[in-house]
Amino acid sequence: MSFDVYEQKFKALADQKRLQILYELCQRGNTCVCDLTDIVDMPQSKLSYHLKILLDAGLITKETKGTWSYYELNPTEISALLSEQLCCIFRPIDKSPGCC
């Protein structure tokens, strides 16, 4: 059994800025990268670096519309990796019946 996949996912989670990005995507849903730069107060170049790590780990998904990229949480992957308590942080309030 190879743990490389899990190592990549947990490394992606082991960063405060990436956790903030995941949280914001959870609260806002499908969000344009142009809006995320203001939300997380980060230049687009640094934000793109963090988004790529999250995307490569499968924790978020990306949809391109014209010249803009929209990102969204991958709830299946988040739920599979995190405890129920941590998943509550990354679930919208209206979609978390019985959470915590």
Automatic annotation (TrEMBL):
SMART domains, per the entry: HTH_ARSR
Domain of life: Bacteria
A GO MF label: DNA-binding transcription factor activity
CDD domains on file: HTH_ARSR
Keyword line: DNA-binding, Transcription, Transcription regulation
PANTHER family tied to this protein: ARSENICAL RESISTANCE OPERON REPRESSOR (PTHR33154:SF18), TRANSCRIPTIONAL REGULATOR, ARSR FAMILY (PTHR33154)
Domain HTH arsR-type: 1-93
Keyword Transcription among record annotations: yes
Name of the protein: Helix-turn-helix transcriptional regulator
A Pfam cross-reference name: HTH_5
